[in-house]
């Protein structure tokens, strides 16, 4: 049962990160515009434009290969944690202005709903990492 749940988590995250990476590349000008509309420095937006899509795709690739799954979950937790903190900062009005919402399948959601989705995906990533780690430990001691 845990093996099936772990596989479902991996497949969900592979789909998610592949989707968001490719959607940024296929609508690149929109992605660049949206990143430059965020309330942080242009140099940071430019850095994220170059780093985020390959990093998201890297998570998907790492989760594909059994020997690299641990790294995939670690990177997923890191990315989802950062995305969730950013949405939290928006919700707490820590910026001078509220940026436009994300594109893709979250484009119709408000910031509160976006935060809830991010928290769920962060929880899924943590659960996957935990289940995978426990499975590895059992295999080592078997």
Could you please describe the fold and organization of this structure?
- Helices cover 78% and strands 0% of the residues.
- The longest helix has 31 residues, at 111-141.
- It contains 5 helices and no strands.
- The two termini are 18 Å apart.
- It is an all-alpha fold and 142 residues long.
- Helix 1 (2-26) packs antiparallel against helix 3 (42-64).
- It has helices at residues 2-26, 28-36, 42-64, 69-91, 111-141.
- 21% of the residues are buried.
Using only CA atoms, what is the Rg?
Answer: 16 Å
Query: How many beta-strand segments?
Result: 0
Structure classification: mainly alpha
User: How would you sum up the global shape?
Assistant: elongated
Mean pLDDT: 90
List the helices and strands in order: HHHHH
How would you characterize the largest beta sheet?
Answer: none
Calculate the terminal CA-CA distance, rounded to whole Å.
18 Å
Instruction: Quickly count the helices.
Output: 5
Q: In which range does the helix fraction lie?
A: over 70%
Q: Which blocks of ≥5 consecutive residues have pLDDT under 50?
A: none
Portion of residues in beta strands equals under 5%
